[in-house]
Amino acid sequence: MVENFGSVFYLIIFIINLLGLIYYAYLTYLNPKQLINDYETGEDSIVMIRVVGSFVLSYVIIGIILLFTSINGAWIYFVSGLMISSFQLLYDLGSRMKIIDSNYKVINKNSDTIIAVVFIVINVILISGLSDRIYHH
Question: The whole model's pTM is what?
Answer without folding.
Answer: 0.87
